[in-house]
Design brief:
The complex is a heterodimer of chains A (336) and B (340). Chain A has eleven helices and twelve strands. With 336 residues, chain A is an alpha/beta fold. The chains are: A alpha/beta (336), B alpha/beta (340). At the A-B interface, helix 8, helix 9, helix 10 and helix 11 of A face helix 6, helix 7, helix 8, helix 9 and helix 10 of B.
Chain lengths: 336, 340
Amino acid sequence: MTTGNAAGREPLLDVRNLSVAFHDGDRWNEVLKEVSFAVEPGEVVGIVGESGCGKSLTALSILGLLPKHGARLTGEILFEGRDLTKLSERAMRDVRGRRISMVFQEPMSALDPVFPVGTQIVETVRRHFKIGKREAEERAIESLDAVGIPSPRQVVKMYPSSLSGGMRQRVLIAIALVCEPRLLIADEPTTALDVTIQAQIMDLLLELGQRTGTAILFITHNLGLVAESCRRMLTMYAGQVVEDGAVRDILARPFHPYTAGLLGSIPQAARRKTVLTSIPGRVPSPAEMPAGCRFAPRCTYVEPPCREPQLLVESNDARHVRCRRFGELALAGAAS
Amino acid sequence: MSDAAPPGPILTVDHLDVTFTGRRRNIKVKAVVDVSFSIKPGETFGVIGESGSGKSTLGRAVVCLLKPSGGQILHSGVDPFGLSRTELRQHRRAFQIVFQDPNAALDPRMTILESVCEPLDVAGIGTAAERRRKALAILDRVALSEELVDRYPHEISGGQKQRANIARALVLDPRLIVCDEVVAALDVSIQADMLNLFADLQREFGLTYLFISHDLRVVAHISDRVAVMYAGKLAELAPADQLMDAPLHPYTQALLSAEPEPRVPEAGTSKRIILKGEIPSPLAPPPGCRFHTRCPIARPECASREPEWREISPDRFVACHYAGEPLPTRVGASHSAAQR
């Protein structure tokens, strides 16, 4: 099953100029604007940004889970060579859970409280593979075992309410990975968990991803987790990708003032009791997006030409940045 | 606000137990067990712990929202539980608490200004006009602009609501504020603003904080000293810099390792301590050392003998038989990914 890595340079997922607008009264608010990025087979890519920057919306768009009415999607989402935006709902159902799956932040709301967890895994397996009930149950038990759940034979019969938050998240990961998808979208998978449990779950996700060659699109607000687990990252701000590159390069020297601002906001051991460099203001709501650079109203380095829309330009080392001043700014990175 | 700071500690917690009794008398949850520490005026004392560690119960007991079942709490030497109801009312103005959920403490049918005036109205301080002036001054101080004060909670952002909650606590001129996960629900840039605000307010009003959080970096950033709680008990207490640089308790070490810093990744440095198992239920805490079920260096005696709370060097306390021993680390899956 793990031949994905041999596919060469062809990206597994290639999102091109993805824009999403929501209908609001008599106008359309563009909440995602020209989002482009790619994920190679087996790669772990992080998407960072604050609430309202479009991270989760990007994930939902890829999975075709936008509301049928009142949402307008343009651009291409190429996955394994097919444009997902062109697929019928029926064809999309074969992709979801089988080729692409997702782990959500809130494990309780993603599991059905009235069915035992085993039933929920079996349901996923039998949706995608023509196998008998008995065999599917065995797969369910195996999958729980693979995510480190003790005594999986008992746990398959248990209801989500009798499991801890960490265990529920393990069950969700089991459901997501039971069909061995090529891409796993993990949307804040550890945010609702305690830190020691977070460490367990991250370790599990990365290890399973590596073992099955599954690429992971890891959505988080936690730059520490990205530093530790991803090779490449994107920073999103107000519905746009503002920076894209290798984690190592971006953390050493961010090009976009927003990425630098996020880094400065995080308390770090070396800078105890100092004033944190917060970012003034907040993420604009979809109805009040600035016409030019969307970060300009909060940016310390703003100049009159920044009032023009900014393009995502390529720098050296395959990095991209949406800031006309990136070459002249020397922004502070993370401690090394 | 208050003139010369009193010589003694502003808060003394002495062998504190808080036990919840179930509807059936035989069910007892010992949420806080034998916790002792004291806080100096003007200090920021951090408490860190995961779910079920008892940190919020501790915070509530400190401001007399819960009654201790054992031990004692002293506010500047006074036992607040020995006061009459009227005395306690007057007394607790000086000891305030701000909670995690910015919505929970704001009445959705009151404007922000009304909510901030309310504690003054209840306390019956000054005339209505004076109370309004005072509330407006405090709201201005926490950077809630004038056009926001007549809005309702649903019309402002989470960060702004949390500023209103701080204003509500500040308006009674408190001396100590318990901050229970006050920045947990906020985005990092807003969180940074709030942490800066807390530091400014402390300087300006001479406040003392008991700062409770699950986020070790937030606590270490703002605190002078930090206590680590696990399953109802204190595991370690140390000045913040020493705790971060040289944690002694294996649990503290695991916490530090579990929340990675946004550092530039280097091959070979991504070592971490991953604890096995789950946080124990306070209904049935493990015997002996409460951490032994997850501890990477646990030995047989840890399961039977409870470690003492001892002062290992001046100002450094720890409850572990083998404090300071190095822990086995494992190289995370991420490490090999970075090297590929």
